[in-house]
TrEMBL record, chain A:
<dbReference type="Pfam" id="PF04542">
    <property type="entry name" value="Sigma70_r2"/>
</dbReference>
<feature type="compositionally biased region" description="Basic and acidic residues">
    <location>
        <begin position="73"/>
        <end position="85"/>
    </location>
</feature>
<dbReference type="InterPro" id="IPR013249">
    <property type="entry name" value="RNA_pol_sigma70_r4_t2"/>
</dbReference>
<dbReference type="GO" id="GO:0006352">
    <property type="term" value="P:DNA-templated transcription initiation"/>
</dbReference>
<protein>
    <submittedName>
        <fullName>RNA polymerase sigma factor</fullName>
    </submittedName>
</protein>
<feature type="region of interest" description="Disordered">
    <location>
        <begin position="73"/>
        <end position="105"/>
    </location>
</feature>
<keyword id="KW-0805">Transcription regulation</keyword>
<dbReference type="InterPro" id="IPR046531">
    <property type="entry name" value="DUF6596"/>
</dbReference>
<dbReference type="Pfam" id="PF20239">
    <property type="entry name" value="DUF6596"/>
</dbReference>
UniProtKB/TrEMBL annotation, chain B:
<dbReference type="InterPro" id="IPR011008">
    <property type="entry name" value="Dimeric_a/b-barrel"/>
</dbReference>
<feature type="domain" description="YCII-related">
    <location>
        <begin position="1"/>
        <end position="106"/>
    </location>
</feature>
<protein>
    <recommendedName>
        <fullName>YCII-related domain-containing protein</fullName>
    </recommendedName>
</protein>
<comment type="similarity">
    <text>Belongs to the YciI family.</text>
</comment>
<dbReference type="Pfam" id="PF03795">
    <property type="entry name" value="YCII"/>
</dbReference>
<dbReference type="InterPro" id="IPR005545">
    <property type="entry name" value="YCII"/>
</dbReference>
Amino acid sequence: MTTFEPTVDDLLRTLAPQVAGVLTRRWGDFAAAEDAVQEALLAAAMQWPAEGVPRNPRGWLVQVASRRMTEQVRSEQARRRREELVAGQVPADRRSAPGADTGDESAHDDTLALLFLCCHPVLSPASAIALTLRSVGGLTTGEIAAAFLVPEATMGQRISRAKQRIKASGVPFRMPDSAAWPARLDAVLHVLYLIFNEGYASSTGPELRRVELSREAIRLTRSVHTLLPDNAEVAGLLALMLLTEARGPARTGPDGELVPLAEQDRSRWDTVAIAEGVALITAALPRGPVGPYQVQAAIAAVHDEAPTAAETDWPQILALYGVLTRISDNPLITLNRAVATAMVDGPAAGLALLADPPPALAGHHRLYAVRAHLHQLAGDREAAMADYRAAARRTASLPERHHLSLCAARLATRAGR
Amino acid sequence: MKYMLLMQFSEKNVDFPKLDEWKPEEIQAHIQFMKQTNAGLAAAGELVDAQGLAMPETARIVRSHSGGAPVVTEGPFPESKEWVAGWWIVDCDTEQRAIEIAAAVSAAPGPGGRPLNMPIEVRQIMAAPPTEL
């Protein structure tokens, strides 16, 4: 397979470390220099075979890689400027919904308008998430692809198709009018919530927590809260994220295994995040109208404020789930409500709520997991074991499968088998 | 060269109970072993991908149907005695090395800490045509 002429590839392999050395000395950032060199090598590999090797190949590579470095630094600076602009904005007026005829578009309106555009209902959730992270969050396609464990080309395609979709639908780049405002804001909050959830409880793959995505979701939601300080649901969503993320460090054990809320070491919870979340939700609730994010944040706050699992104010949580059931139709609420009912009125009462589950829950692994937990509380080991195993066989999350299998195994051990 | 190491679970080629019937410490040892194996492959630059599949209970069989809508059959299949549990995709220099990795994952510990000796199918992944010089 060898030829006696040194190929373009051989030449590039010889030059690569030299060019990386020049750039690292010049910029002082090896990792970035190395990336830039990779791109220059790629450009050379595509151009040289067709156009011939330049007279000074090393100089050519240094020049192309340096240009890449400059572009990187510029986009990094632009991203930082954008962030400072958003974080430092004090809204000129205190209206939550500017009129459609607002002529004076300031920078913070631009940020919001961009969010409304990226989260437009014409897009699928996956597309809206990708576009939001890139256009508003300033992440690269590669970073987003890595966060969602898909090839970069796939993510690039998803983003460009989302842009085409928006272009084709003719959605204008401006604030939605007051009639459309609530629904459009809901869409934005839903996308931010999905980003957070993806990071917090990754539904696929071996890793339980993808911290970067939840942090990114918090950062974006914080900027929306800065722009719309009077909106109670925005404050509720930010509080919910903070109060949930606060438990993150205690949610996994030393070997990466799942640790349920009741068994978490509460000294590892982030008290700063809890304090901020509690303050946010306490201030938001009286402002109304009360929406699902505020109620969920209130529930998270009750959990986070309990010094031990035993001291959890379950009657209050049960009451809040009652409110949530009236304003939201998410079937998973039924499961959490059953747990709260069991803690207040005993496991039999909780199980009774799940005797006739809504169709959306039929066969859902969490239905089995909750039933198993309630059977265990009731002391019915056989039923608990059977349901833990059924849940383990139905989950698509590896850490959860391990956790549920372990729950079944522990019961079997205690039963003396 | 890339190889797929296929973990094909078949009731007739295993002589151990289902994982959720093991002792807790046996499950934990098994998970630890798999994690360390994958970390080792990643550190050696040989790991391309490693995925586990959800159990057959959630499987669906789909067949297009000339008469109209596709036919979707829901699991679980009581008669299904074999299923793909998961796979590794490794990128290594020789077939011998792929076989070595397969042997290592086959020896994952099970009940009583004994190696499971699961059969692992080693399949080369087809690549671009050979370079013509």
